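Pasting as-is:
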Amino acid sequence: MPEHTLKRFDEELERLSATISEMGGLAENQLAQSLVALRTRDTEAAEKVIGDDARVDALDEAVQEQTIKLLALRQPMAIDLRVILSSIKIAAALERIADYAKNNAKRSIVLSQTTPPPAAVSGIDRLGRLVRVALKDVLDAFAHGDVDKARDVWQRDEEIDQVYTGLFRELLTYMMEDPRTIQEHRARRRSRHQHRRAGELPHRRARLRGGAAQGQRCPLRRGQRTVSMTAQAAARRDVQTSSVKPHVLIVEDETALVELLRYNLEQSGFRVSVAHDGEEALTLVQEDMPDLVLLDWMLPLMSGIEVCRQLRRQTLTANLPIIMLTARSEEGDRVRGLDAGADDYVPKPFSPTELVARIRAVLRRIRPALADEALSYSDIVMDLVAHRVTRGGKPVHLGPTEFRLLRHFMEHPGRVFSREQLLDSVWGKDVYVEARTVDVHIRRLRIALNGDQRADLIRTVRAAGYALDVTPG
């Protein structure tokens, strides 16, 4: 590569580094000013933080343009490529930190007419100082290539987590002692939460998760599916539970908020699963299709907006109900979320009771069967609460598998399902049995439904599968 080209490339890298430094300084100042606004109840300072957020957004766009040009025109070597890609991620993190500072400023305005407990303010102040120091140090480490300083910031994250946990418990105790403070606590908790998340961003660690497997996959042999008795029993229990409760997938990286959502949803009769980042959410949707996704915007690895777009691009999830639950409450953000494919948009802080009502409303609109206590098709009525089936007013006695099979058909009348699709939906994806097992249970279901020489409503479609349909096969 000619010397003048190399020189020009180095100049562009220096310009990119300078933009990152300027952006980091602004983000750090935004955090500091939002703390001042919270501590002094200065609404003018809070308004300035909200207004200055546009400058950080502009610098983020400048970083994106510079990196795109470098990648497209300069063909960087491996070491330079790492710098460029790191700059993209750091700019995105700094933009999010500025967003958190803006949200803190909004909370400060909300709290300007209240008197918080002094300990809570001092705790948030201390948390904010720790985050500011960590942010400054990690930006210096990036600018100078100081690996030791970067590792030190990483290790100091434990202290930030401890302060965060202690402050959360203190505020929770204060809230429970005086229930009148609950609304005020929601706004204050949001402010504390923004500082803690801002502290995570420059040096977020990979999260290790584990869970008990529902069963072990065994080698397939000529279409047969085999499974251990323990795994099969566990999977059956899961499917039986899910046949009654609508399944909600929570995609949220904030542990305390996840527990709040899980508690309220489970108390309201929903089955809940959790993903802590965007990539995990897409994997869980493929493994166990939920009835609705509750999706945060600002997630690790992949944003909620991108998760929403990817779900809408896939045929199987194109109509999956999605509710965005996010701190980004501006009109433009709401429009972006809805345009990306969300069915509803709920800004934080939120009322858990209202959120549950919105979930039920979306399910009623998109999948009415999930919101009803009974399903009906032709002269068949299925009472989901009493777990009873009648046809023409006469009781129909079904085993648990036939009940789940009939419910699946009644939730999707007229649609043809292959044996494999029925195995995944009714038996579960982690249960491996012979595909012909479906035929056995279809035959049992037909015998139970057609005992009095009634019309056969289960249609066999040659080389395709089965459907619940009054149309003659």
